[in-house]
Each structure stands twice: as C-alpha cells, then as structure tokens.
Amino acid sequence: MKKNILICGVGGQGVLTIAKIIVMAAQSQGIKFKQNEVHGMSQRGGSVYVHLRLSDSEIFSPIIPKGKADIVLALEPMEALRYAPFLSREGLFVSSSAQLKNIEYDYGKTIEKIRELGGKLLDSKKLAEKAGNALTENVVLLGAISKKLGFKENTLRKALIKAFGSKEKSILSTNLKAFELGKNALL
Amino acid sequence: MKKEIVLGDEALALGAIDAGISCAFAYPGTPSTEITDFLIAKKNEFGIQAEWCANEKTAFEAALGASFAGKRALVSMKHVGLNVAADAFMNSAISGIKGGLVLAVADDPSMHSSQNEQDSRYYAEFAKIFCLEPRNAQECYEFTCKAFDLSEELGIPVMVRLVTRIAHTREEIERRERRAQNKLDEEMKWNEWVLLPGNARIQFKKLLEKQSLLEKKSTQFIEMKKGTGKGVICAGNAINYFMEVDSGKTPFLKISAYPLPMEKIKEFVKELNEIIILEDGYPFIEERLKGMLEASGKKVKGKLSGLIPLSGELTPESTKKALGLAVKIPFSVETEFIVGRPPQPCNGCPHVDLFNALNEAVQEQKNAMVFGDIGCYTLGALKPLNAINSCIDMGSSVNLARGASIAGTKTAIGVIGDSTFVHSGMPALAEAAKRKSNMTLIILDNSTVAMTGGQETIAKGKELMHICEGLGVEKEHIKVINPLPSKHAENVEVIKKEISFNGLSVIISKRACIQILKRLAKKK
How far, CA to CA in Å, does B91 sit from each of B24, B420, B450, B465? Predict the structure, then answer.
C-alpha cells in the first residue's frame, strides 16, 4: 500500500486534525507514515499544508514529489489551486467550495479552473452546518476522501472515535455525523 | 523498545533525554522551537531542567556551564541564532567540555520563516567540531544519543544539524533505554577553561590534533555502493530525495557526518568519471570536493555547476532533474490564477492598534525613519499597515534608529517586541541613553514570544520599565500606553509628543497577545 495525500487550507481550518486522524487509522493497520507540517509564520491565517505519506515499505522523502499525490484535499478553493501541481494524473482532487475571505481573488475563475483540472467541489461547509457545527468541515472533507484512502471499513470511524472520544459526547457525535455526510457526498 | 510518534525536533529532544541530559537551554526560533517546547513540557517527568533563555548566547553559555559542572546539556537554536551564540560556540571548541554538550541547530533552506538560509555546517567546520546530519526522525533520535557519546569521548561540543523538512516531519520512532544522568563534578579545569593566550594556544593545538580522529569518526556515518561512470554523493535530507527518485542502480555515497570522510570519498570516486553532489543548503560538500576531483579529471556537478539552484531548499524535483530524470507534472496551474496568502496579524492583535497609532503620529513627518525588528510585528511591514521598514537581525531596530539619528535624521524610531528587546536590544538602549540619542524606541509588550507559539518571555510589564530606567532612560520619557482602538487618539498624542522630544524616549505599548489570552480562557 502506498498513498500520498496532500491536505491544504488556511491556518485554523483543521488541516492537521485531518492528518492526525488518517495517521491514527494507518497506525491501527500497521501502515508506516511520514507527515510533513508547516509551522511558524503560516499559522497566522496563511496558507497551510500537510504532506502525508502512507506506505507498507520505508518512506524516504518527507515531502510528496510534484505530480505524485494520490489525493489533494483542499479546505479552500485558492489553496486547492496552489497545491494542484502535486496531483498525479489519476489522483483525486477535492476542494471545499467555500471561500475564506482573508485575501481577495476571483472566485468564479478559481472554481472554473478547479473544475477544468478535474477537481470535485463540495459544499462541505453546508454539510458541516447540517451535521451541527461549521467547524467540522474538515471532517466532512475527510469523509469525502475516505473511500480512496484504502483503509478497511470502519478504520477511519474508529480513529475518529479515538480522536474525539475524550471530549464532550456532542463533539464526537457531530464529527461522526459530519464524516458520514462527507462520505456520501461524492458518490 | 518504546515507540512514539514525534516530530523530528521532538525525536531529537527524546534522544537527548535518553542520552542522559540534565539540562536544556534555548531561545525559540522556527524550525527549532519544538525541541525545547517538548523538553519543557516533559521536564518534570524526566527530572531535567529545561528553560527558555534571553538569547542564544546566554543559552549556549548556560549549557557550557552545566557541562563544566560535569552534566550533559543540550542547547538548541535556529541557524541565525548561532550567529548570536557564535562567540561562546567558537571558544567552547577550544576550551573543550566536561559533560557532553550537544548543539542542535535547525537550518531553514528556502527561508520558510527566516531572513536567510545560512548553512550551519560551515560553523561546525569553522569551530573544528564534529557535526551530524540526520535525515529522519529516527536518526534525529539516534544521532543525538551518539552526539552525546562523541562529545564526551572527543571532549568537544558536537553539532546536530537539522533542516526545516526534517525538524517538522512527524514519524514513529523507536526508543532505547534511558541512560542515567552524570554526577555533579565541581573540579575546575584552569588549564583548559582560562583561555588566556598561554592556555588557548595549547588548547587550540589539542583541537587540531583531534581532527584526524574526527574524520575517522565520520566514516562510521556513511553508506557506500561503489560503481563506475556516474555516481552520487548525498548528505542529510538529500539522501531522502536521492532514495526517492533513483532507480537503485546509481553508485552512491551517503554522508551523515562532518568533517567529510575524505578517505572514503577518495575510495568511492576512484572508478567514477562524473560525480553529482546532492545536499540541502549551501554547496558545502561540493566546494570542498570540486578542486580535488576536477584535478583528477572528474566532472563534478551540483549547485556550483548550475545543475541545481543555488538558492532554496533541495526538492524531489530538483533532485530528479539533477539525475537526468524527467519531472512530470500533469496538473500545472498558470501563475495568473494563484494569489498569495501571506500570514496576517490575528484579529484583535495589539500590534495592529499600535501600528495604526504610530502611522497616524508620523503622518505629518514625511522623513520619519521607522525601523522594525523580528517577531509577529514584522508583519507590520506588509500592506495595509506598512508601518516599519526593516527586519535585519534580533535587536537591530534600536541601533538602526540610533545610527540614523547620529547620521542626522530628525525622527528616528525603533519598534521592538518585549522578548527581542531583552534578547539583544538592551545593550543598544544603554548606548542610546549614555549618548542621549535623539530617537524613540517603542517596545511592544505582549508578554510572550508570540511568533514561535507563545513561549515564556524574560521581562514584561513593570520589569521592562525598570530595565529601561536602569539602562539610563529618563523616567519622564518612559511612557506606557495601552494599544486599544478606544485609546487611539490619546496614544497618537503620546507618540507624537515623544518623537518630537529632542532626546531618548521609550514608549511601552502594553497589551497581551490575543492568542495567549484565548489559550488562558480555554484553560479556565
């Protein structure tokens, strides 16, 4: 098993949380991983990404080579375009359709370009609200790519329970709902 | 064997713990901060001392002092921090150490969050010490353990050099048993530590005599596959990229320690006619080998030859190109579509309100020279604030303003954070007070080291006032303001008044970092 997953967004959107849950799932199946993170300046509302690499065998490069990501998951459309060059030809390209307006750009043009590149846009923000909390948008998107991650059924769900289990019950149930909504959104 | 998921930085910290350190000292700086964040969080669990220091020099000296008392000590910093610590660092190689002393330096090729991308391997060579370069978290752990062994065996400090990609990559590592700490040993070594010329000359000779032994040690950190034709010499993180993209047929020499293992290099290149050198940072290895290899008729290719860009970090793509492999990017996006998303001050950041007041106060003075410094407030140099005009080195704003004032400018202003001021702004303020310089220093007191994630600062609030007074600033020209939108008008007045004063003023703009307040509120 080999999967390169690039997750990107804006500081504060929960990019690292997605990576953390995938890593927990990978670990439970004994899969090796490497996770390169952005620290420092980018946390102040700047562009944030995680290079997450899963494999059965030794992983060398801490970052995904361009053109080699099996999945590019974006929590924001401009970030989707920024990291699109990492996507492999057969890769899955998913982005939230919700713009985070701390910079200005041509939204229509951006969305059009994502579609042109074969990207799938998901109104994950709306689904997160439907789940009960707009902050679970990251988990909606995790749900959306879950089938392509190659884990056994329920592995991710168990990881979610592990990740949110120690918090209030409502937090866990909202996140599980968000995950299910995301999972069924990209059929 | 215990397994843990950790960042490269944290793996290094665990290596130091299991090597039996007693103390850790550091000044925060990306990408090295997480080493000491981790150690401070775990200090009670492991029974060690770990603390943030005023600057990298004091951190290094404290580590050396602990070593002189027989204990093992770790000192950590980012690459530019080593410039600050350089005096202590260079001379510690001459004096030698007692308890193991390891310097962890994190370089930042590509300047992800730094002013330059200097390569610390030059410092290791300059000081004539041993340097290890791990390529993953497991090596961060193991090499740090070994670094302490080597430090005590060789009697010198040992450097562990990281780059951002290694420092900030999370992986699973395996740990070994923890070694006991050293006992306190108060024996003074006058002959070694008193670096008067008589002693220093002898000590320097001893260091020179150790060099061949150091080179022998670095041969223990190589992996070689000999061959003919074209071969690759790679080091540290570059090994990762080479292993990632190579077909498995290219002869290679992997290097993980310095000084360079020259005998092994000569052995490796014997049957080769072309050598590609892969390294993350400056062309350190290439510079050292180019002359020798070219003199024996071999082609040497790397950063110097133009095969790989001289600036920026090494990448899988540049490595591929260097090896003559095609880089295929199926989904490229034209630059016209991409809009940058630079970091921005947080909502409710006190710096923003101060900069708004400062901008208004200097509005009428077209020739005001406002110098900045290093911290979150450096973002005040960007649009829409455009409030400061320099970011050179830690503490520089004070003397840049003073120097400009001496040169004749009427309105010279320095803007500095509380931690940066204590780091290295204080001596400059003492000079300004002594010389009655015509300048204004604004100290942004948010009571934390915010940029690197909210580490403890040495002085804040009243302590800063007392420092300024003690350094000789006149009490009536030390003003404290609260940077709130509601106090904008009065703050503008205070700033206007103090910058028009023909002498030295200090304005302390005091309001806590919004992120720290949020964190405290969450804890409650």
Answer: 20, 25, 32, 34
Residue A18, pLDDT score: 97
Nearest CB to B331; choose among A27, A45, A84: A84
> Are A93 and A80 contacting, i.e. CB atoms less than 8 angstroms apart?
yes
Burial of B28 (0-12, 13-18, 19+ CB in 10 A): buried
C-alpha neighbours within 13 Å on the C-beta side of residue B368? 23
- The residue among B68, B50, B313, B24 whose CA lies nearest residue B168 is B313
Range of the domain at A138: 2-183
Token readout for B505 is 């003023």
- Adjacency order of strands within the sheet including A2-10: A120-122, A87-96, A69-74, A2-10, A47-55, A32-37, B169-175, B2-7
Residue B122 pLDDT more than 70? yes
Q: Are A117 and A92 in contact (CB under 8 A)?
A: no
Please answer whether residues B32 and B26 qualify as being in contact, where contact means their C-beta atoms are separated by less than 8 angstroms: yes
Q: Give the β-pairing of B229-235 and B272-278.
A: parallel
Nearest residue of chain B to residue A118 (CA atoms): B331
* Integer Cα distance of B159 and B144 in angstroms: 9
- b/e map of B63-72 (b: 16 or more CB within 10 Å)? bbebbbbbbb
For Cα atoms A94, A99, A104, give the angle at the middle one, nearest 5 degrees. 130
Please give the tally of structural domains in chain A: 1
| A–B interface: beta-carbon pairs under 8 A | 135
**Among the residues of B96-196, which ranges form H helices?**
121-127, 137-154, 164-167, 190-193
DSSP-derived pairing of the beta strands B101-107 and B73-78 = parallel
Are the C-beta atoms of B486 and B457 separated by less than 8 Å?
Answer: no
Burial (0-12, 13-18, 19+ Cβ within 10 Å), B324: exposed
Q: Which residues, 6 or more positions from B27, have their beta carbon under 8 angstroms from its beta carbon? A: B52, B53, B54, B55, B56, B58, B59, B77, B81, B84, B423
- Is B169 in contact with A37 (Cβ distance < 8 A)? yes
Cis peptide bond prior to B316, omega within 30° of 0: no
Residues of A within 8 A of B316 (CB-CB) are 61, 63-66, 68
Tell if the CB–CB gap between B170 and A109 is shorter than 8 Å. no
User: Which residue reads 């002498």 in tokens?
Assistant: B503
**Residue-level pLDDT at B352:** 97
Domains observed in chain B = 2-195 (3.40.50.970), 220-322 (3.40.50.920), 350-520 (3.40.50.970)
CATH value at residue A67? 3.40.920.10
Tens-place pLDDT, residues B275-332: 999 999 999 999 999 999 999 999 999 999 999 999 999 999 999 999 999 999 999 9
Task: Kindly state the helix (H) or strand (E) to which residue B42 belongs, with its residue range.
Answer: helix B33-46
- The shortest C-alpha distance from B484 to chain A (Å) reads 20
CA distance B163 to chain A (A): 11
In our burial notation (b when 16+ CB lie closer than 10 A, e otherwise), range B313-322 reads bbbbbbbbbb
Could you tell me how many residues make up chain A?
187
- Where chain A has pLDDT below 70, the residues are 40-43, 187
